[in-house]
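Late entry, evening session. Most of the bench is empty. Finally got around to the prediction I had been postponing all week. Sequence below, unchanged from the version circulated by S.P.
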Amino acid sequence: MKLHGWNGKILRVNLSSSKVSVQKYGADFALKFIGGRGFAVKILWDELKSGVDALSPLNKLVIAAGPLTGLPGPSTGKLVLAAKSPLTNGYGDGNIGGLAAVHLRKAGYDALVIEGKAEKPSYLYVENENVSLLSADGIWGETTFKAENKLREVHGRNIGVLVIGPAGENLVKYATVISQEGRAGGRPGIGAVMGSKNLKAIVLKGTKEISLADPKKHKETVKECYKSIQENENYSFWVRQGTMGVVEWCQENSTLPTFNFREGVFEFSRMIDGYTMEAMKISRRGCPNCNMMCGNVVVDLERKDSELDYENVAMLGSNIGLGHLGKVSVLNRLADEYGIDTISLGSNLAFAMEATEKGLWKDGIEWGDFEAAKALVEDITYRKGQGNLLAEGVKRASEELGGGSEQWAIHVKGLEVSAYDCHTAPGMALAYGTSPIGAHHKDAWVISWEVSTNRLGYGKEKVDKVIEFQRIRGGMFETLVACRLPWIELNFSLEWYVKLFKTVTGISLTLNELAGTVADRIYCLMRAFWVREYGEKWNKEMDYPPSRWFNEPLTKGPFKGGKLDMKKYEETLLLYYRERGWDERGIPKKSTFDKLGLQKEAVELGKHVSLIP
């Protein structure tokens, strides 16, 4: 069967031996895992042994596209970056937008698998069949911005670049991959995985055409899609503020992370919200094929460009007590230049500030201290002084620091929580608890729905919505691969993706198949990856949100006194497991593996942990 939409090829590079090979795959593999996250978790499951050191040459970096990636269509300029996470020691991934997505596909590949370790700092150059490992002597040690500009001077402007900064080189456990001076991906330390391989950058250039099943129908459908997005009543406000509008919404609904997730409201929220951003804004940036760009570029306090969105502003603003958007923008830009995750960075800074407040942190840092925060960002990046401890993430930092700090180390499975306080949002807390990479909103941003319904309730309604969103956001969008913002922000119909899939591949899959069966298969395999790593130590407490939300009620705002109920959360978590076909430990049952066509995977997992039929 001829594949349309998919190239049917995976490029493999061994940095240790400089061996390059091309693996072909067929329709069975394509339809079972679709692309992106599906390809990534299957490759990592098959090819990594449990217990592999995430920063060793044995770990593999997978960069994967989907059948919609790089083609004309709403927000299709996305790639999934995946590896075993050095931050969590579980499955880790993230997506990144930019020209790299287009060029990987036009070079003729749907995924790139990198293993081994280069003898010296290097970068990978891929131009169609020409694959070369080149010296990175001139860019190693440079910031992501400078390194990418140097690579564009050498290889031309029309290329895709994925690059790490000094944080990745120094193996900061939450180092990210950066592209185009502000596009970032790989929160669970994918940048550190590249650094451990002496891989500074990946440069991609493709000149081929991707085969479409129905080019004419595809062109017509894409035109209708763009028109539908622009006609939405919220489009003009989105163009003005993008995700920055969420600051005001969170403040109003007491979910804005403040003082290390101690509170849900911030006294100076207006100083960091979307309206303040509008006054500073000079331009917008977005990914290829996007007509609702989310990157708002402002001039920061140091007169340099900084690309803002909600997550980095909340985590580097209210969460550390800093109510000055010009200063927040500096911290955000530094994070992008150094190649470090803004969410985890904000959490680690807040952890240090609270440790200072509680007398546990030597040479302390006070809440909202901008200059000290700047200095600490550099110390984390270069692992200097106490920055070396924070470079490990809040979970490890709290274990070493002690003094009860584990109670206010805000993470799930080692990944710091993204920017929504859940003292009074049990559904979102469940989404964080069960996210397949650790605490991240990417897979199930249910908080907007939750606030507008039975906000404080627990039970089946919340479980069903979390699973529904995981299937759509973490399943369908992460495999096609496309951005979910048109749907979640502008009510763009999911049926458009079914139509696009048909015009691209020629294959009819229903929404229930794309955001149901396929998604469940991938979630089952991601969960299996985690369980295989932890073996019999795995238990349901791995899926608990931070202790603070249960033990320390809010003291301010409209939900003063609010906190999560542990007994009700546990009951809701067990309901989630039942709906997923997992046992009371949170491990998929053998019957669930069978139902999803993962019989071989069940046999493998059964070597590490007992499976319930």
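Two things to note before I forget:
The longest strand covers residues 78-84.
The two ends are 36 Å apart (CA to CA).
Will write this up properly tomorrow.
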